[in-house]
Amino acid sequence: MNLAADMMHYNWTINGAPFDKAVPPQSSQGQRAVLTSTKTP
User: Fold this and answer.
1) pLDDT digits over 9-36, tens only?
2) Alpha-carbon distance 11 to 26, whole Å?
3) Alpha-carbon 13 to chain mean position
4) Residue 17 belongs to what H/E stretch?
């Protein structure tokens, strides 16, 4: 999943789709999720 933002206009995208139109990630009860944060210039 690629989370990106334009801080000038507060536009957020998930995998290139606007935040309010993006399909949320799915998980099942008991399933473990691992998130890795990477800062790019």
Assistant:
1) 778 888 888 878 888 888 899 999 888 8
2) 23
3) 7
4) strand 17-18
The answer for residues whose C-beta is within 8 angstroms of residue 25's C-beta and 6 or more apart is: 1, 33
Comparing 40 with 13, the larger pLDDT belongs to 13
Q: How many CB atoms lie within 10 A of CB 12?
A: 14
Residue type, 6: D
pLDDT at 36 (0 to 100): 84
CB 1 within 8 A of CB 13: no
Return d(Cα 13, Cα 21) in angstroms, integer: 9
Whole-angstrom distance, CA of residue 22 vs CA of residue 28: 19
